Amino acid sequence: MVRSLRSVKNIFGKKVLVRVDTNVPIKDGRILDDTRIRAIIPTLQFLIKKKAKIIIIAHLGRPEGVVVPNLTLDPIAVRLGQLLKRHIEKIPSEDWKKSSGIFKMVQTMIEVMKPGQLVMLDNIRFSPDETNNKGNLAKQLASLADFFVQDGFSVCHRADASVLGIAKLLPSYAGLLLVNELQGLDKIFHASPQRFLVILGGAKMETKLPVLKKFLKISGNIVVGGGIANTILAARGYDVGASLVDKNLFATAKRLARNKKIVMPHDVVVGNKEGTSWRIVTVDSKPHGLCEKDEAILDIGPATITLVRNYIDKAKTLVWNGALGYFEQQPYDEGTFAVARAIAQRQQKGIFSVVGGGETVEVIQELNLSKKFGLVSTGGGAMLEFLAGNKLPGIKVLEHKR
Which CATH number covers residue 166? Predict the structure, then answer.
């Protein structure tokens, strides 16, 4: 098990590096969804109360080692300050161009900081040395602090400087959010297979394949939708028109189709992406044409929604990752929204549900259902890799004794 921040006995006046995930949607400088920012508040409040000097490390988007003006963390720092009700000093992004400058600036700030104050470095991914822990970035960051706190579960599958590199150089602990995520996900591995339901959707089958194989061993049934279902249908010989499929995985898809644990759609909604032309098509047992050439499968149909609800009603443990259709466009949001509501209702009757993945979390935020699930994971790829049984670099390094 990872070592929790709560196990640290003497924090007063200590300099603490905190890695968080603030990768939130922003448009024209306005934050559209601050869920991930709110999620890190408990850890920061804990450190503020303990009178630590807090240095926040975070990222936004994928600037790939260069300064991108619209990916600076200025709006993040402002919003975080509002939630914490205190000022957060933000280091200017231009200083990443000369790494020595940024560390001299931070060291100067730390010297005059009072216990309980915070400073935020700009987008760590502006540094070309962040990805895969290159150069001296980890050493430079580690020189700023007495210990390190990892509270960004969504980046723990990466072996980056601010994830793995620092943790190798400083006494390191899991933040409150990370501990909560790991405890929730750990319950999945102790679930009874007979009443363990998995729902997998999303655009790409490739990212879901490892966890799907893992779940086939430990779950009761796996409901599939989105690109996974499309690929299986296409591999079996159904004409899916312009639907999103992964042709490279047809051989794997055919094998999965023969597994009785896999629950496929009984009907689908096909149409154009604009939602101006659509129809419901029954998926017969023998391959046939589901779409015209210019049509695509964009949602599960009403019979499938009823089927999935029945599986949810019988479940005791549930994992959901990935939308079941093109929910951004009406009327293709009905399937995904119906499943979200069904899980939320079942949660009140004793089910333990875990929901993760960017678009899945976006759905439950839109429906205002966040508090109706057992665990809303901030991790997408990290959650899938963890549930697939892979050792995440950012987690494994926290398990070592010092």
Answer: 3.40.50.1260
φ and ψ at residue 15, rounded to 5 degrees: -90, 125
pLDDT tens track, the chain, 402 positions: 889 999 999 999 999 999 999 998 898 889 988 888 999 999 999 999 999 999 999 999 999 888 898 999 999 999 999 999 999 988 876 655 566 677 887 888 888 899 999 999 999 999 999 999 998 999 999 999 999 999 999 999 999 999 999 999 999 999 999 999 999 888 888 877 788 999 999 888 888 888 888 889 888 999 999 999 999 999 999 999 999 999 999 999 999 989 999 999 999 999 999 999 999 999 999 999 999 999 999 999 999 999 999 999 999 999 999 999 999 999 999 999 999 999 999 887 888 899 987 788 889 988 999 888 988 888 877 888 888 788 899 999 998 654
Q: Which of 177, 204, 223 is the last residue of a domain?
A: 177
Whether residue 244 is contained in a domain is answered as yes
Range of the domain at 280: 184-387
Same domain, 250 and 360: yes
Q: Which residues 6+ apart lie within 8 Å of 303 measured at CB?
A: 266, 267, 282
In this structure, the answer to whether residues 278 and 188 fall within a common structural domain is yes
Question: How many domains does the structure of the chain reveal?
Answer: 2
Helices marked H in 159-225: 166-169, 176-186, 209-218
250 lies in the same domain as 382: yes
Tokens representing residue 98 in the block? 């000369």
Are 124 and 135 in contact, with CB atoms under 8 Å apart? no
> Residue 56: which of 132, 140, 137, 149 has the closest Cα?
149
Of residues 367, 249, 261, 267, the one with CA closest to residue 307: 267
Within this chain, do residues 116 and 225 fall inside the same structural domain, yes or no?
Answer: no
Shared-domain flag, residues 277 and 369: yes
Tokens linked to 100? 């020595």
